[in-house]
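Good morning C.,

I know you're traveling, so I'll keep this short. The sequence:
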Amino acid sequence: MGKTLGKWLDAGGVAAVTGLATMSYLLYLRYKYESMDATIRVIWEGDHLIPEDRDAVNKLFNCQKRIVNLQEKINEVKRIIELEKLNSISEDETLAFRTSGLLLKKTAFLNSEVDKLASAVDMTTSPRRTQEVLTLKKKLSKEIVELMGVIDKIIAIVKEAEKNFLIIEEDAKQFYEKQMDRN
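The tokens, ready to paste straight into the viewer:
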């Protein structure tokens, strides 16, 4: 019985050390390749890129994740604008509302973030001009240009709504003043 237990503990000890070594290696790869997605891709496919190109691909994958986050934030701003449309003071299809500080901050933040993202993609280089890096960079650049267009439209909507609000507000003041003069 003692010998069997000893063999069992030895096998368990070997399994524990093997598991610890595997986890340590995975953590090292995660640190080296900057994300677990990249680590799993390297383990599954193997790394056919030189380290500089791998760093470029990892940076571009991180930019891709930032694009997804920006799209979510753009949708949030669109929801705020839709809510403002519902609360608009205009009776016709003209969009008119006082622009809130929150909406201005969010649109300014989006504009700044998309510019930073475009800069990060633009600054990512491939020493050997690897096709994988160039293709991913081109794809991300197109997505960023589309985001810039959407953000520009949002900014135009916000500016137009504020302008229309001020016009309606001024018309209302003039109408009120005329009413007061009659009385």
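Safe travels,
E.
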